[in-house]
Amino acid sequence: MWSARGESYVTIFDVGSELTVQTVAEVAPRLQGELAGGYPVTVDLSAADSIDVAGVQLLLSARRSAEAAGGDLKLADPCHPPLTAVLKRMGILDADGMPQSTDAAFWAPDANLSECEES
Questions:
Q1: Coil, strand, or helix at residue 117?
Q2: Distance (Å, whole) CA 56 – CA 62
Q3: pLDDT tens per residue, range 45-63
């Protein structure tokens, strides 16, 4: 889906119900295709009930690819409970939800993740 924002376009990319080791091989080429245009891409995780380490690795790789193509990759909802749960298990977020990595701005650009409600 494309939505106009001034003169530029933003792609909303829906990952589906899973972003796991079983699905990243299918999701990755579609996401890379969206990033190739150099336009900003917002990843929508709202339907994803399951996210694992492979999904987080895909998001990090996609972010780097976006930057290399002159684009940008953002998360529609950095407080999505399955995402925050895996980030805590990985040590990217501490138990209170505070980013512990140099990628902190990617995981919570406008929010303190300690304020995210967990379900």
A1: coil
A2: 10
A3: 999 999 999 999 999 999 9
Contact 58, 31 (CB under 8 A): yes
Amino acid of residue 114: S
With beta carbons less than 8 A apart as the criterion, state whether 114 and 97 touch. yes
Alpha-carbon distance of 2 to 8, in angstroms, equals 10
DSSP 9-63: EEEEEE--SEESTTTHHHHHHHHHHHHTT---EEEE-TT-SEE-HHHHHHHHHHH
**Identity of the highest mean pLDDT range in 5-9, 18-22, 92-96:** 18-22
Which residue type sits at 13? Answer: F
b/e per residue 86-108 (b: at least 16 CB within 10 A): bbbeeebbeeebebeeebeebbb
